[in-house]
Specification:
By secondary structure, this protein is of the alpha+beta class. The chain has three domains: 43 residues, no CATH class; 91 residues, Elongation Factor Tu (Ef-tu), domain 3, CATH 2.40.30.10; 157 residues, Nucleotide-binding domain of ferredoxin-NADP reductase (FNR) module (Rossmann fold), CATH 3.40.50.80. 26% of the residues lie in helices and 27% in strands. α9 runs parallel beside α10. The two termini are 26 Å apart. It binds flavin-adenine dinucleotide and FE2/S2 (inorganic) cluster (FES).
């Protein structure tokens, strides 16, 4: 498996490319669609310039495909820990199918609330047309969604919820350590399910974090993962991780789902054990539009480039601290 990931756009090869950024000459990948006169893209199997000018949807002056908003009803609601709620709702078949992709998330809000109440929520499970998410009541947007009525507006699909997504999608018959903290449990269940379906051996180290409860441990075990449930990653989880690295078993990938501080802790443990393997990590940027337009998700990379994290798929270790 390639140790380095070259930065790419998460919407490449999707119905959402070419996007509004290409329309405004700010495409992430195509130099021509950034206003330059020469082509120096890192060829990824598709020419965005060709797609923009010659594909039928553009020739007929159709606008770039944008995400749909659907209104639906919360059909399952469960308090799974203090301030942490599991919500289930149905969407149409095509949206449900898209939300099965690794790293998928949606924006949610109450129908009567203005656009700026929309906030990103990762998909934990898709079963037919039923989507399950877990939401922590932390501030105005989540409180409003969780305490309002049963009708909600879902906007999606968005895909860049995990950095290092190709590593997760492409690995088969490997050994993966999944390090999970608090609200990272939602995406961890989706990722663990995918990895196990691809005949991988998954070792999960899970801590409840601020949610104060481990709610995916049993399900991951039933799916075939080996689960270490710990009270704290800092106090005991990182020690287990270090010992797994030092045990000498071949580990192909580490996936960290949780806050950025946890990702840095995992990187430190890898450095301490002189382990040099790929690490995928949840994308914790602040996101408002999800389309590369508003700029709220911008982060600096180690090479001083600024990256719009809702669009750019990269390696977490390439982000500046
Ligand atoms: C890709 C992605 C997936 C996420 N998945 C989940 C999930 O499955 N469940 C869940 O409970 N939360 C998830 N979050 C975080 C969630 O979006 C924030 O908790 C929510 O926006 C908080 O808004 P608030 O108004 O309730 O709280 P605030 O008081 O506004 O913020 C509380 C915390 O959330 C962060 N935050 C605020 N607005 C945003 C925003 N627009 N985007 C990202 N972070 C924000 C703040 O920096 C702060 O740390 C996800 C975030 C991202 C980027
Ligand atoms: S969320 Fe608006 S640019 Fe990324």
């Amino acid at each position: 498996m390639a140790r380095k990931l070259s930065a790419s756009c998460i919407d490449l090869h999707s119905p959402f490319c070419p996007c509004i950024l290409a329309e405004t000459n700010h495409c992430i990948l195509c130099s021509h669609l950034k206003g330059q006169s020469t082509c120096d893209c890192n060829w990824a199997g598709v020419c965005i310039l060709y797609e923009k000018y010659w594909q039928p949807k553009i020739c007929t002056d159709e606008k770039p495909t944008v995400r749909i908003e659907v209104e639906t009803t919360i059909s399952r609601r469960e308090l799974i820990a203090t301030n942490t709620h599991l919500l289930g709702f149905t969407v149409n078949e095509s949206l449900a199918a898209e939300l099965g992709k690794t790293g998928s998330f949606v924006f949610l809000k109450q129908p009567s609330d203005p656009e700026f109440f929309h906030f990103p929520v990762g998909v934990m499970k898709v079963n037919g047309r039923m989507v399950e998410v877990v939401i922590e009541d932390v501030g105005p947007k989540s409180k409003r969604l969780l305490t309002g009525g049963e009708q909600i507006v879902v906007r999606g699909p968005y895909y860049n919820g995990i950095l290092g997504q190709p590593w997760i999608d492409n690995i088969t018959c490997g050994t993966i350590i999944l390090v999970v903290g608090g609200m990272g449990q939602g995406p961890a269940l989706a990722i663990g399910t995918k990895l196990l379906a691809n005949q991988n051996n998954v070792i999960a180290i899970i801590a409840p974090g601020k949610t104060e409860k481990i709610f995916i441990g049993q399900e991951l075990r039933e799916l075939g993962a080996m689960v270490y449930a710990v009270d704290s990653l800092r106090r005991s989880g990182m020690g287990i991780l270090g010992r797994l690295f030092e045990a000498g078993e071949k580990i192909d990938l580490v996936v960290s789902t949780g806050p950025d501080e946890q990702h840095y802790g995992v990187i430190a443990a890898m450095q301490c054990a002189s382990v040099n393997i790929p690490m995928a990590a949840t994308n914790n940027a602040t996101m408002c539009c999800g389309e590369g337009i508003c700029g709220s998700c911008q982060r600096e990379a180690v090479d001083n480039r600024t990256l719009r994290m809702c669009k750019v798929q990269t390696d977490f270790s390439q982000l500046a601290t």
